[in-house]
Amino acid sequence: MLGTGSPAPGETGEGMVSHALALLQDSAPGRRGHWAAIALLALLAWLALEQLSAQLWFLPAGLRLALLWLVPTRRWGWLAAAEIGAQATKSLVLGYALFSTTFLAVCVAPWLIYAAVVYVFRGPEPAPAFDSPTRMIVFLLAGLLAAAGVSPLLWLFLVTVPMSMADSLVSVFAFLYGDLIGQIVAAPLLMAGLHGLLHSRRHPGLWRDLGLVLVGALAVFMLLQAYGGLAAYVLLLAFAPLFFLGFRHGWEGAAIGTAALGAVIQILVQGGLVTVSVTMLQLVLSVVGAGALVLGAASTALRLSHEALAQRHQELAAKNEELGTLAGELRLISQRLVRIEEQGQRELANELDYELGHAIHALGTRISLAFRDVRDEQGTRFLESLREQVREIQDSLRRALRQLRPPMLDSHGLRRALDGGPLREMLDDAGISFETGFGGPVDGLDDDARTTTYRICQALVREAVRLETVRRFGLQLHVGEAEAEGRPVDLRIELEFSPYAPHLPPLQPLPAVRDRVLSEHGRYTVEPMVHGQRHVVRFHAGD
Any idea which UniProt keywords this protein has (predicted)? Predict the structure, then answer.
């Protein structure tokens, strides 16, 4: 949210900078007093930078481009008033006429050209900081085109000496390079300062690296002072370290380095300590400076992406930890539900055995006693059929009770319950061959793991019986030695289908098995076989 008040007393420098940027980018109506103060500051800054300008650069061009890039379109009138007022002040001091074509062409038209180019490239709203090389390239291209549009106009009205075509082009390029160097030196530095990106904690080691770069540049220029003929070979070495600053410290470091190196060059030029032509210095500084800014913007984008990725990793780590906690709680809940289910089935089996089993047994006893009182053949046959139906009911009840909770699982252990219990009977009745293999202390598993293993096998046996295409059911159970996480349990069940089956069932896990495996925090996979499928379950059982 944009600030609407003055900075609080004792506010930090970073907060004041952010407040100043928010004020510059505020497009809400009103606040004319604030903008009048901003226009006055811009006027004074323009005059100060104009005094620092020389043959190497025209620094107000950088101020103009930076303010146009930062300020919304509806506030551009204040910027125009500030620059035109500064130009008028300069003209009055120098004794130039204000109401003339030259004043309009030299002092008013350049701002309009810059504003038109920036509006085309940026739009009506302020642009954000340079978080990608594309934004930096657009910014530099806008400055280049604006300078290219202004330089012929300045040459036309400021150069009054007759020149040849070649000299005219040289003069036009001199105006172009002056504006371009002013943009590269002043605009990125001003924008970095207003965005609060020049704090030392954001760029550790920046001033040390900047000092090394400037010392290296001075060494090269001193070498050229002594041996001017080496310019074609070593001049670029004075500017190349700007790429290092851009790569190491982002576009902010490149902006500081370009401005500092430009200041050093200007001091050396004014002192007559540089034998290289100013045009050559302008050309190399503009090319290398622009390249360093683009490289710095790419480095900044990479750093921001790394920071965002690190923050995302922290968030994901927190979410994973939270999910792990929830998974542990869900596992406990699932285990409790499984225990409740097993307890319910055990109690149901006991109740059925007590209520129905005894009643059916008593009914069979009474039918057997009734044989003594019946003498005719028809009654005997009727009682015989009743007794046979009672036996079938007893057998069905016994199988149902075994499905609910086989007594063999509690009395003889898991191995006997799987090898010779109700599951084998179900497969034998369906005509499916049953093969088993056991390894390790199978009967040493705790009650939860024993029940889970049996129920998984029971669910797969029911699936095999339901499919009607299974001809072999292979069970391999291996229990490892106790570890820190518990005893590793490896259960492999192979369902081999008939080779004459017209359609094979899909290769997908069974929900009943998956729920049991999840309650033990294990893994459940289904693997294809030749005319079959293999169900693999792995989990750790508690001691």
Answer: Cell membrane, Membrane, Transmembrane, Transmembrane helix
Question: Is residue 438 helix, strand or coil?
Answer: strand
pTM over 0.70: no
* 33, 95, 408, 410 from 81: Cα distances, Å: 14, 20, 99, 96
Which stretch of DSSP H or E encloses residue 491?
strand 487-497
264: closest CA among 238, 227, 284? 238
By DSSP bridging, strand 470-479 and strand 433-439 are: parallel
Q: What is the pLDDT of residues 400-432, one digit of tens each?
A: 655 666 777 777 888 988 888 888 888 998 899
Residue range of the domain that includes 392: 326-403
Report the residue count for the chain: 543
**Residues 33, 46: Cα–Cα separation, whole Å:** 20
532-541 sheet: strands from edge to edge: 433-439, 470-479, 487-497, 532-541, 523-529
Nearest of 287, 248, 286, 264 to residue 214 by alpha carbon: 264
Looking at 146, 172, 196, which one is the last position of a domain? 196
Count of beta carbons in the 10 Å neighbourhood of residue 490: 15
d(CA 479, CA 444) in angstroms, rounded, equals 9
Give the Cα separation of 132 and 303 in Å (integer). 10
- 69 within 8 A of 126, measured Cβ to Cβ: yes
- Spatial distance between the Cα atoms of 114 and 121, rounded to a whole number of angstroms: 11
pLDDT tens digits for range 102-138: 889 888 999 999 999 999 998 888 888 888 899 999 9
Give the number of C-alpha atoms closer than 13 A to the C-alpha of residue 392, restricted to the C-beta side: 6
DSSP E strands in 80-238: the ranges are none
Out of 178, 196, 214, pick the residue that ends a domain: 196
* Coil, helix or strand at residue 198: coil
In this structure, the answer to whether residues 471 and 440 fall within a common structural domain is: yes
Q: What is the number of structural domains in the chain?
A: 3
Residue 493: predicted pLDDT: 94
312 token code pair: 């995302």
CB 231 within 8 A of CB 285: no
Angle made by CA atoms 492, 495, 498, in degrees to the nearest 5: 160
